[in-house]
Write a structure and sequence with these properties.
Elements: E1 4-8, H1 13-21, E2 25-29, H2 33-47, H3 60-64, H4 66-78, E3 89-93, H5 98-112, E4 122-128, H6 133-140, H7 166-175, E5 179-183, H8 185-199, H9 205-220, E6 229-231
Parallel strand pairs: 1-2, 3-4, 3-6, 4-5
Helix pairs in contact: 4-5, 8-9
């Protein structure tokens, strides 16, 4: 069975290489992820392809919703209780938003099963300042997000100018009394360095965005020090190594007895 992938031309090289190694037919597109989606739609109409893009197939959201179940079970274990627990707040880096929508689905299922009550975490959408269609729609009170013009950010997972599940995300934010936050590219890259240096987590830029968004909400008082706050990092920084070129590093001669002089 053939797999054809359409990616923006500036997709991180690691993602492109990974797909090529797995045997996919990879095509780079001069445009954004939404432009890739248009080509896939055309291929479906012309050749009968099956579209596996975000929220176009039935299985991805079912996989994403397991994050909601894992949260409930893990917090119960951490607190040494048999009663399932949910955090007070969840911050999620949002492009297509499948993770946010999937977790909300999981919470509804757990309530129907009688595992939790009607309480829900306040959900927070985090987007890049250069591509923030959901944030803009939330702030304006709209029920749908208009395509974001000239979308640009180094966090490729956030570079989604128009998400098919926009109305679902907006419903989640309002039902949960949550909010939506933007972070600049400079700030989210700083967040990557802070997470690596202070937590030992080499996060992707999307994860750096969530950390800096949490800092913003803490400083504004929207987050309380007594609340349980969950931050999602959705990938490894290793896929973004091209954004972190190493500085000019000294080279030591291991045979030189003075190699370590001046380091103490």
């Amino acid at each position: 069975m053939k797999c054809r992938l359409f990616m923006p031309r500036d997709t991180p090289p690691a993602n492109i290489i990974e797909c090529c190694v797995a045997g996919a037919e990879v095509y780079l597109v001069n445009g954004l992820i939404s432009d890739c989606g248009k080509l896939v739609k055309q291929g479906c109409e012309r050749f009968g392809w099956f579209d596996l893009s975000t929220l176009k197939e039935p299985f991805r959201i079912e996989g994403k919703k397991t994050m909601g179940y894992e949260l409930a079970f893990d917090l119960a274990t951490a607190r040494d209780t048999r009663t399932l627990q949910l955090p007070d707040v969840i911050l999620y880096p949002t492009g297509g938003g499948t993770g946010l929508i999937g977790m909300w689905k999981a919470f509804d299922e757990m309530e129907q099963l009688g595992w939790i009550g009607s309480e829900r975490p306040r959900m927070v959408v985090v987007q890049a300042e250069g591509c923030a269609p959901v944030v803009r729609a939330f702030e304006s009170g709209a029920s749908h997000a208009e395509p974001f013009p000239n979308a640009a950010t180094v966090a490729s997972g956030l570079r989604v100018p128009a998400a098919i599940g926009d109305f679902l995300m907006l419903n989640v934010l309002r039902q949960s009394q949550g909010t939506a936050v933007t972070v600049t590219d400079a700030a989210l890259m700083e967040g990557v360095h802070e997470l690596a240096g202070e937590q030992g987590i080499y996060a992707c830029p999307e994860g750096g965005a969530v950390w800096k968004a949490a800092c913003q909400l803490r400083d504004s008082g929207w987050l309380s020090p007594t609340e349980t706050v969950m931050l999602f990092n959705t990938g490894t920084g290793l896929k973004y190594n091209h954004l972190f070129p190493p500085p000019e590093l000294p080279v030591l001669d291991h045979n030189d007895p003075a190699a370590l002089d001046g380091m103490n």
